[in-house]
TrEMBL record:
Belongs to the LysR transcriptional regulatory family. Pfam families: HTH_1, LysR_substrate. SUPFAM superfamilies: Periplasmic binding protein-like II (SSF53850), Winged helix' DNA-binding domain (SSF46785). InterPro entries: LysR_HTH_N, LysR_subst-bd, WH-like_DNA-bd_sf, WH_DNA-bd_sf. This is LysR family transcriptional regulator. PANTHER family: HCA OPERON TRANSCRIPTIONAL ACTIVATOR HCAR, TRANSCRIPTIONAL DUAL REGULATOR HCAR-RELATED. Residues 6-63 form the HTH lysR-type domain. GO terms for molecular function: DNA binding; DNA-binding transcription factor activity. Keywords: DNA-binding, Transcription, Transcription regulation. GO terms for cellular component: protein-DNA complex.
Length: 308
């Protein structure tokens, strides 16, 4: 039966004595006098009801029971040290599980750069990634199912007071056309040159921010886009453009993808940026989240400096 009188110090004293097999050297290692050390070991044996050491004038030896107890005591002390290390690292945001949500276009640009640096600095943090629509990220943040999100900021009506938001990337819109399109050979386009073209868009219901961004840009150019097809994935959109089924407007970051059969053209008169924001719970002061935000800001600044 476990005795509450046995404390961690008893185990530490015993382990050092067992390793030295000499009370004088053990006392020196523990920076204490020999008589109190001998008294503590005798107290431990009394509480256990077991002789752990055989002592005589010339030597100290472990009994068979002492050898068994030594292995268990060493393992227990290592577990205690690990527990202390873990809780201290958790306090500093160095361990734990970090849940991050992101939209597809953020995964094509800023998120990989941030994660590369973060994972190198905090290898013991388990990062869980979920590709999600922006509105789903906001709900997950509200429900404490996410720690950080990367999304297109909603309009004023979609903002939530408990969510903090920080712009991390602004990308101009570009046109994407089939490579055999009559306008494909131009150096740039005015948005209204696409007024008679069939558009491939995200549906209003699944990605309304992106949908509204494109429709708003067309409206400002004096027309409502003719919607030929609706898709939910950017790679599907590019594939349908390559197949000649329509044109579209996309963030400039997507131009990193160069599938065959399409061309990207800058827009001369666009006033719209495709903006990505980093979001988190306003009152989340945990080191886990704050350390990630600090790394993200550092990486974002480096990317911005590189582009300027």
């Amino acid at each position: 039966m476990y005795s509450q009188k046995i404390e961690l110090r008893h185990l530490r004293y015993f382990v050092v004595v067992a390793e030295e097999l000499n009370f004088s050297r053990a006392a020196e290692r523990l920076q204490m006098a020999q008589p109190p050390l001998s008294q503590q070991i005798r107290q431990l044996e009394q509480e256990l009801g077991v002789q752990l050491l055989e002592r005589n004038k010339h030597s100290v030896q472990l009994t068979e029971a002492g050898k068994v107890f030594l292995a268990d005591a060493q393992r227990l002390l290592q577990q205690v040290e690990q527990a202390i290390t873990n809780v201290q690292q958790a306090q500093r945001g160095q361990v734990g599980q970090l849940k991050i949500g992101f939209i597809a276009t953020a995964a094509d640009s800023i998120v990989p750069e941030v994660l590369k640096v973060y994972r190198a600095r905090y290898p013991r943090v388990n990062v869980s990634l979920r590709e999600m629509l922006g509105r789903d990220q906001l709900q997950a943040l509200k429900d404490h199912e996410l720690h950080v999100g990367f999304l297109v900021p909603p309009g004023a009506s979609g903002m939530q007071p408990q969510i903090s938001m920080e712009i991390v990337q602004r990308n101009p819109l570009v046109a994407v056309l089939p490579e055999n399109h009559a306008l494909a050979g131009k150096q740039s386009l005015a948005v209204n040159e696409l007024a008679e073209e069939p558009f491939i868009l995200y549906p209003h219901t699944s990605s309304s921010v992106f949908h509204d961004l494109i429709v708003g840009e067309c409206n400002r150019a004096g027309f409502t886009p003719i919607v030929a097809q609706e898709v939910s994935e950017i790679r599907t959109l590019l594939g349908l453009v390559a197949a000649g089924l329509g044109v579209s407007l996309i963030p400039s970051t997507v131009t990193l993808f160069r599938p065959q059969g399409i061309v990207y053209l800058p827009l001369r008169d666009s006033t719209t940026d495709y903006t990505i924001a980093m979001t988190w719970q306003h009152n989340d002061s945990s080191s886990l989240v704050q350390e990630f935000l600090a790394v993200a800001r550092e990486v974002i600044k480096q990317l911005q400096d590189r582009e300027s």
